[in-house]
């Protein structure tokens, strides 16, 4: 079996780590309590309810103690505060606890936190380590309320409108948060109930959005807490590992048929998008859509891989590296073997490895209309023939991310080099796309459309 480039060799960690997420505070708290019943478990939680007053409280509890400590908000930045306090705290618990549960505030996305656990360095190089160097990250448990989750995942309500903790410049919708938490889960714990038809539709969405995640009812987990150990998961389970930007867009084996009106749509093409026409077409990636995600390239910036994500009424488009086409030998040397192989297999004499690849999970959308609109947004034959100099002059309404795309959701700007260092950066480039959203690592591209 090939070694995972994201994980160093060495002695196996003795402390297990589980990330617990969800929009349902009562549900996640019940799971935390069930996990605390297992001897040797410690739950770490950062309470963000008083963030508006500049206060964050860290709570650490085990079977016999429960301690809350106010944590200084580092220069007003939540990401810095969590990174500087959460990551060292987990490392300190190594060897003392058999299992550490990082219980996230409802406003946080687990992919961001897992990226930080795996790639942000602690200490000084060359002895610096990441959290996952010293603990065994088992994966992510996400708790959902089946009575409300589908409406949350398809609505337009923002995080601020819901009354959750409002991070600086955070324009995410509840749908973006709900889908991100489920999409990254290794185990989905279901609480609440819903009418049979609504429940069937929710089940159809979950099967396609997170096909490798196991599912269990909260009542069943209460009867058998061992299911929360993540000892039995699908072979393709994420185990807390963010995908690379060039990884397959469909993880596992999601159903490809339609169920309760829920189905998957895939769009692929080699031509570049006309930026303005793509911008005009993005509403079709929002209406009747649960989730869209994929790689795109714009005629105005042929070197850049752009990552597109939408959920409910919110959409993001941000930079995600560079295509290997026209890149030097160094870019090929730094590419993972998987990426280099895929680029070579799909190489086009005109476009190299550049391509449009988007998957869309829909519940009430016309796939033919969506396909026609996206094809119409591609460059025409005449526009292609005009060449890259002419493409560079095309109107580009997506250009604003160059000014704002590297800022944290809570307003503090970081360069990835400063966060991860050379070793962490190498591991990240070897395996993981730096995720968008709100969490510990922090960069959140602005929304291109709402």
TrEMBL record:
Pfam (any one): CobW_C
Q: What is this protein called?
A: Cobalamin synthesis CobW domain protein
| Compositionally biased intervals (Basic and acidic residues) | 405-419
Residues in domain CobW C-terminal? 262-378
Q: In the record, what lineage is assigned to the organism producing the protein?
A: Bacteria, Bacillati, Actinomycetota, Actinomycetes, Pseudonocardiales
Provide the residue span(s) of the region labelled Disordered. 396-450
Q: For bias kind Low complexity, which ranges apply?
A: 433-442
Q: Which InterPro entries match?
A: CobW-like_C (IPR011629), CobW/HypB/UreG_nucleotide-bd (IPR003495), P-loop_NTPase (IPR027417), Zn_Chap_cDPG_Synth (IPR051927)
